[in-house]
Amino acid sequence: MPTTDNQDQSGERSVGIVETKLFTFPSLTLDNGETIKPLEIAYETYGKLSPNKDNAILVCHALSGDAHAAGYHEGDKKPGYWDNYIGPGKAIDTNLFFVISSNVIGGCKGSSGPLSKNGKTGKPYQSSFPFVSIADMVNAQEKLVSHFGIEILFAVAGGSMGGMQALQWSVSYPDRVKNCIIMASTSEHSAQQIAFNEVGRQAILADPNYLKGEYSFEHRPAKGLALARMVGHITYLSDELMREKFGRKPPKGNIQSTDFAVGSYLIYQGESFVDRFDANSYIYVTKALDHFSLGTGRELTAALSVVKCRFLVVAYTSDWLYPPYQSLEIVKSLEVNAIPVSFVELNNPAGHDSFLLPNPEQESIIRDFLLSSWEEIG
Amino acid sequence: MPTTDNQDQSGERSVGIVETKLFTFPSLTLDNGETIKPLEIAYETYGKLSPNKDNAILVCHALSGDAHAAGYHEGDKKPGYWDNYIGPGKAIDTNLFFVISSNVIGGCKGSSGPLSKNGKTGKPYQSSFPFVSIADMVNAQEKLVSHFGIEILFAVAGGSMGGMQALQWSVSYPDRVKNCIIMASTSEHSAQQIAFNEVGRQAILADPNYLKGEYSFEHRPAKGLALARMVGHITYLSDELMREKFGRKPPKGNIQSTDFAVGSYLIYQGESFVDRFDANSYIYVTKALDHFSLGTGRELTAALSVVKCRFLVVAYTSDWLYPPYQSLEIVKSLEVNAIPVSFVELNNPAGHDSFLLPNPEQESIIRDFLLSSWEEIG
């Protein structure tokens, strides 16, 4: 059982037992003019904030993530999604840094979103929740960061949608960020990425339980959400990883039964996702993803002309969902703006999900990027 | 309006107006021991069978295809799926060759399948139709070929599932095929390919109208089938093609409306597919695809040790659904068996669907492959 010590049961370096907290702000005005009132932000922190408040790292999660980035909730066997990289002595070293991790608005894991109570009606927003953008998510995070009295974040880091948030931070708050780590990400979704999200949304909309978003929990559009997750899940894995993971069992069964290991695996992924995610949130968050458009080429170069921090951009050869060319667009636009940027393309075979998985090269690269800036300060 | 001349309205070389015919055989015994009784095969032919019956080319269609490979049905604006390559003076030259094109069994476009009448009950089979394999599809085609009195096919050709059938022909009937053209195909589906098909099947099964396959036409599982088609359609296109085709329009609309051109396109693809395809067929045919296993490596080499024909294997760099490595497995196993094989990887940017699209290089390669064998004969 993990303890509050720096050693969990396996002897690995862990932040130990953690709990998600909630902070409530009076409101947040969104880019589209609408207001979330009150603004609730679910978050976790690891490590200690320095007296100068100069050692804070904000981590941003991906589509199906949440505030629980590291350590263990009481009773859980599995740690937070980025536990491989956050902890004492890990790449994002909680012996040095104060790590803040919050749930995005529009999500369904504690922060304001479709499941939150609408202050006006007293009922869950559901599909009356306003559209949010990646920039809105960042503005919500900014309130939390300021609440801690932090003027300048030592770093913002994230993969996939988390990388988009990190990039947006550097644009929205150029004076408030020293370092920016963007992994397996993009400045703008391609038509293919939008297409996969659209299929997921259409699967939810096609579920007869969807009821224009006004469904009850008991009769929620589980099948539609499970299908959306199945499609998404294929895109997070590489062809190579799937070949290794799933052999070919002899075919069996009738027209309705699944007779391939990969099929059963996907069905399981879909069904378990329904227990931990909300269909409306899936729509809101994928819409935010698809609408994120810092652009490419000249448009991106212009957008990034305001940034002032250092960048680490990481891509994965086997990531066919967020392919390296998208990271290279960001790198190019930063370089045209003479912004310091380190780029690396790692050949982890695991596809898009690689940024979450243990990898000594990746660990070194992140650690060294952070420490080389840290040592300049102190 | 296309005419029976060799010129259609655009002046292109066309086989002109064609119609799908039906032939009924007493029965077909499947590999699994079950019987289809009677066996109906929908087919079209183009060109003339030579007196020696030595100029026949069998073309095999892909998942959502049918017997209509070339020319125009009366009243249609669009020609058959492979009209770019079949016709007078085209790569598969109907001035020289007699082209046979049939609908696979298990399909829904005239050949025995879930929509066919069960000889015993007088009602459509629906989900009581037996499972079929790619080998069964080939055995059904063999009956048609023999019906024409053709002992040896000059060639068998196909892309995607059509390529799998062509490969199976060379294994099932090694003495009956002279040349084999396999495009954008594989000897065995990877876990990723199975995964995409499984999502499509699950979408159909999740549709409340599915009713274990016993649905009426009026209340068929249209939404599930449309979703399956949407997912499939993304896999047939390349990222590059989608980027060119779909710009980014400014986002608009509410949570339920689609605000991206690619989203509207996919929804249209899904909805129009429902008008021309059957959900049960989708399950039967994708199951046949996923169960096709001539294997890879040693297993494939052993399976191909019986083949006697010449091969042309074509892959596309941008085809991430049936990537070139799968074609190269076939090539390798043929080479180990000292079977003559020409391999080419074309860099059409259009992804998996490339084999259907006009391309001068592809046209030459196919034409020359066929003619070099034809000239040897006569």
From TrEMBL, chains A, B:
The keyword Ribonucleoprotein does not apply. Its EC number is 2.3.1.31. InterPro entries: AB_hydrolase_1, AB_hydrolase_fold, HAT_MetX-like. Pathway: Amino-acid biosynthesis; L-methionine biosynthesis via de novo pathway; O-acetyl-L-homoserine from L-homoserine: step 1/1. It catalyses: L-homoserine + acetyl-CoA = O-acetyl-L-homoserine + CoA. GO terms for biological process: homoserine metabolic process; methionine biosynthetic process. It holds the Pfam family Abhydrolase_1. Transmembrane segments: none annotated. The active site is at S160, D319, H352. Its main location: cytoplasm. One of its GO terms (molecular function) is homoserine O-acetyltransferase activity. Keywords: Acyltransferase, Amino-acid biosynthesis, Cytoplasm, Methionine biosynthesis, Transferase. Gene3D superfamilies: 1.10.1740.110, alpha/beta hydrolase. Belongs to the AB hydrolase superfamily. MetX family. Homodimer. This is Homoserine O-acetyltransferase.
